[in-house]
């Protein structure tokens, strides 16, 4: 049972006789209930012998932050606390976008809410919109402020107007909290550069290379091509500073409790603008320890839980998304383990599923996918995934080497094949992706490119190859059918709903040209969108197909995430089969074929898993019964079925 469930229990049993319980009483109750956890987490990171003063500061900070929370949001917090786990619903359907690339600025976005409603989207992830350095800024992930809106996007008032409009339409908003680092123009960095010791201790700064060199021995490189190493020399400060990402992104020193206290304040300023889900950016990197890779450390988890418990005390309606694009067995830990199970992040990116799907597209096989999913520990019931196929970042090939070897493949050679398949090194491959951050030292590389270009639409259109175009369209829809039906919140990457191709214009832009992730950050094409209802174009086909799938998802509670997913293993190596079970209604069977040929599933096998016998199998998409061919259910090349049994 996590802390939220505990608060619900208290409200139901203990408080029902007290008619006069005010929101503040409830805050105090949450504080009292969470206090032991908060205290233990705090002192496990910052020993009591040295940091009692900082803990006392936290105790005065929490009520202050609660007082500052807008009344309207406090009301919603309580409704959500009552309702519990609202984010598990089948009604959740997300879209991620760059505000300026979508429709100019925050007001421009606000004018387009109907577009989302038409498609069925009710949850928006806006890429960073706060102040950042003018030129290089990692798409806004180098922050100059955690809550001041960059004027390119509008004003704070514009954002407040947007969040209020979203609330009136029952839509949700996710914004980033770049918790691991600030830009080198952030006020703390500027003070540090001027020699202010207090702020130098907000970062990891060193007078010489002694400690950096020791750290480097075990630290991997995130951007080896453009920002090799993990430290940058700052001439003004005459010190080395830790910069795990780009040289202008300074890692925050969370071993200093003052940093945690200030960042908690920043987190609340951001959420108080009406944010429902906070994306904890690059959270795997939050704690550094010499001799380790400084990722996913136990202290990082304690720190995130500490943020979580404080946030849950102040604003129980706000939840956290873990952006941990890391090894499969590590990702699941961000939901919290042991005593903290269910008390860390409520949502995490399902990066494992995403990477494995791309693996299955390239190999046309699901062996690695099935093997890896089978090895994943079950998530807590109050946690859920964000399921996605593309986002603004690259695709990392973060599968577990042991899983690759266990199916008889060579891990290194296999990764090489995937890079070649997606990055235009194989003539026969339909994919048009680019290589990202290739590291010749170890042969590692990642992949960039839009979903449509990676799935063959760009090449098909270029070559006027009708077969390739049609194959690409089928693949695009099947990939989305998986993220829509696999338990969790589907997140569509803006532009993918209309098959947007790679955008190569970044190659001419200062501050962007050496970062090929910009190829998959295209402008929303409103001309294409204006034609969606008219023509029989590939874009219209994708849009209307996805819209239909979304409608089906949103009208059927079987799609809600109740930890009700069972993987079925079929001997055919091209198929992915899973079931969404339900106690009180018929389950949903999903079958996807990753091959370019038709494949069949035997009637007898379907009977064994409870689909078949006397039951009629219905294709949820067409609404028609599915005929069996020679006692086989046939799935077309690259196609899928959502099957209900009656
Ligand atoms: C996250 C973002 C990525 C950014 C990095 C550093 O991984 O998704 O775009 O480069 O954090 O902030």
* Tally of contiguous helical segments: 24
Oligomer: single chain
The biggest sheet, with number of strands, parallel, antiparallel or mixed sense and barrel status, is:
8 strands, parallel, barrel
How many whole angstroms does the radius of gyration measure?
Answer: 25 Å
Q: Which word captures the global form?
A: globular
Estimate percent helicity. 25-40%
Which structural class should the secondary elements be placed in?
alpha/beta
| Strand line-up in the sheet with most strands | 1-2-3-9-10-11-12-15
Strand segment count:
22
Spatial gap, N to C terminus: 35 Å
Ligand types: alpha-D-glucopyranose
How confident overall, as mean pLDDT?
95
As residue ranges, the low-confidence spans are none
Strand content: 5-15%
Briefly characterize the structure:
By secondary structure, the chain is α/β, with parallel strands linked by helices. 39% of the residues lie in helices and 15% in strands. The chain has 24 helices and 22 strands.
Summary tags:
binds alpha-D-glucopyranose; 646 residues; 24 helices; 5-stranded antiparallel β-sheet; alpha/beta
Q: Strands, helices and their partners?
A:
Elements: H1 3-14, H2 23-45, H3 48-68, H4 71-83, E1 94-97, H5 99-103, H6 106-110, H7 113-119, E2 123-126, H8 156-168, E3 172-177, E4 181-183, H9 187-193, H10 197-200, E5 205-206, H11 210-216, E6 231-234, E7 239-242, E8 249-251, H12 257-271, E9 277-280, H13 298-314, E10 319-322, H14 328-331, E11 347-349, H15 351-363, H16 367-375, E12 384-387, H17 401-406, H18 411-422, E13 434-439, E14 444-448, H19 451-454, H20 457-462, H21 466-485, E15 489-493, H22 526-530, H23 538-554, E16 565-568, E17 575-580, E18 588-593, E19 599-602, H24 603-608, E20 617-619, E21 632-635, E22 640-645
Parallel strand pairs: 1-2, 1-15, 2-3, 3-9, 9-10, 10-11, 11-12, 12-15
Antiparallel strand pairs: 4-8, 5-7, 6-7, 13-14, 16-17, 17-18, 18-22, 19-21, 20-22
Helix pairs in contact: 1-2, 2-3, 2-13, 3-12, 15-16, 21-23
The protein binds alpha-D-glucopyranose.
């Amino acid at each position: 049972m996590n802390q939220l469930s505990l608060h619900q229990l208290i409200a139901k049993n203990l408080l029902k006789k007290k008619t006069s319980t005010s929101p503040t009483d409830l805050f105090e109750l949450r504080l009292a209930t969470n206090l032991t956890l908060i205290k233990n987490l705090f002192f496990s990171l910052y020993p009591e012998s040295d940091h009692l003063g900082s803990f006392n500061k936290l105790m005065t900070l929490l009520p202050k932050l609660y007082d500052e929370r807008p009344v309207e949001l406090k009301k919603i917090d309580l409704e959500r606390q009552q309702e519990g786990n609202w984010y598990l619903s089948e009604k959740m359907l997300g879209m991620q976008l760059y505000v300026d690339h979508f429709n100019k600025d925050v007001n421009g976005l606000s004018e387009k809410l109907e577009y989302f409603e038409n498609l069925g989207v009710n949850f928006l992830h806006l890429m960073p919109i706060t102040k950042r350095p003018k030129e290089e800024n990692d798409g806004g992930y180098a922050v100059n402020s955690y809550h001041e809106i960059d004027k390119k996007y509008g004003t704070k008032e514009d954002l407040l107007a947007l969040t209020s409009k979203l609330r009136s339409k029952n839509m949700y908003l996710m914004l980033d909290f770049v918790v691991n680092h600030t830009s080198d123009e952030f006020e703390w960095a500027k003070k540090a550069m001027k020699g202010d010791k207090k702020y130098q201790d907000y970062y990891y700064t060193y007078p010489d290379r002694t400690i950096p060199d020791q750290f480097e021995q075990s630290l991997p490189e995130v951007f080896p091509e453009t920002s090799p190493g993990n430290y940058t020399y700052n001439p003004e400060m005459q010190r080395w500073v830790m910069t795990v990402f780009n040289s202008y992104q300074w890692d925050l020193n969370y071993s200093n409790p003052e940093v945690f206290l200030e960042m908690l304040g920043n987190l609340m300023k951001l959420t108080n603008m009406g944010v429902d889900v906070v994306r904890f950016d690059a959270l795997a990197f939050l704690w550094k320890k010499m001799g380790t890779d400084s990722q996913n450390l136990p202290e990082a988890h304690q720190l995130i839980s500490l943020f979580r418990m404080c946030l849950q005390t102040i604003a129980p309606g706000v939840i956290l998304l873990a952006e941990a694009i890391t090894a499969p067995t590590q990702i699941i830990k961000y939901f919290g383990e042991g005593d903290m199970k269910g008390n860390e992040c409520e949502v995490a990116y399902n990066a494992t599923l995403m990477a494995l799907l791309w693996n299955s597209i390239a190999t046309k096989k699901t062996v690695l996918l099935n093997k890896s999913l089978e090895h994943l520990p079950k998530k807590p019931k109050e946690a859920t995934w964000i399921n996605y196929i593309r986002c603004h970042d690259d695709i990392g090939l973060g599968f577990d080497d042991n899983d690759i070897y266990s199916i008889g493949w060579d891990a290194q050679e296999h990764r090489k094949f995937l890079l070649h398949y997606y990055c235009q090194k194989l003539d026969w491959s339909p994919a048009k992706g680019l290589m990202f951050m290739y590291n010749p030292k170890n042969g590692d590389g990642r992949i960039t490119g839009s979903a449509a270009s990676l799935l063959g639409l760009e090449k098909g259109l270029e070559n006027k190859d009708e077969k390739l175009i049609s194959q690409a369209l089928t693949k695009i829809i099947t990939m989305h059918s998986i993220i829509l039906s696999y338990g969790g919140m589907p997140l569509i990457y803006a532009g993918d709903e209309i098959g947007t191709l790679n955008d190569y214009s970044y190659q001419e832009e200062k501050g962007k040209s050496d970062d090929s992730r910009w190829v998959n950050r295209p402008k929303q094409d409103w001309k294409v969108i204006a034609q969606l209802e008219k023509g029989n174009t590939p874009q219209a086909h994708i849009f209307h197909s996805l819209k239909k799938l979304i409608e089906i998802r949103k009208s059927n509670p079987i799609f809600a995430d109740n930890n009700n997913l069972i993987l079925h293993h079929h001997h055919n190596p091209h198929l992915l089969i899973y079931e969404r079970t339900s106690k009180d209604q018929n389950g949903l069977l999903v079958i996807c074929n990753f091959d370019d040929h038709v494949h069949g599933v035997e009637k007898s096998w379907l009977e064994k898993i409870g689909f078949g016998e006397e039951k009629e199998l219905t294709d949820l998409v067409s609404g028609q019964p599915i005929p069996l061919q020679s006692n086989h259910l046939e799935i077309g090349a690259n196609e899928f079925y959502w099957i209900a049994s009656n």
